[in-house]
Amino acid sequence: MANSARSLMAKFFYLISMICMGLGFYKMWVYDNGDHYPYETHNAYVGGDAYNLIINANYATAFFVLALIFAVAGSTCFIINAIQLKQQEVVNSNVSPALTKFDGLESGEISENNSIE
Prior knowledge:
Elements: H1 3-29, H2 49-92, H3 103-107
Helix pairs in contact: 1-2
C-alpha cells in the first residue's frame, strides 16, 4: 500500500476515534428523563433514572472502547508507514543494513557451521 494511502487511512481512523469519543461523552453527560417542562427526553430509555444511567454508562463504555481500537489502528498505520519510509531511505542511500555490514557477510563467505571464513 502506498505511503500516502496508509497515512490517509490513519487519519481516517483517528477521525472515527474522535467521533466515538464524542458519542461516548454525549451518552455520559447528556441525560434528561423528561420530568420537567418541555418534557423532552434525551438518552432516556426506561422509567427509572438509575436504569437509564446504567444503560448510558454501558453505551459510553462501548464508544470509548471503539475509540481506543480506532486510535490503535491509526497509530499502527503511522508506525508501519514510518518503518517503510526508513527502509526506502536505507535502500535509496545504498547503505548496507546492520546485518550485512560485516566483512564476511557481504561476500557470502559463510561456512556450513555459520562461521565466517
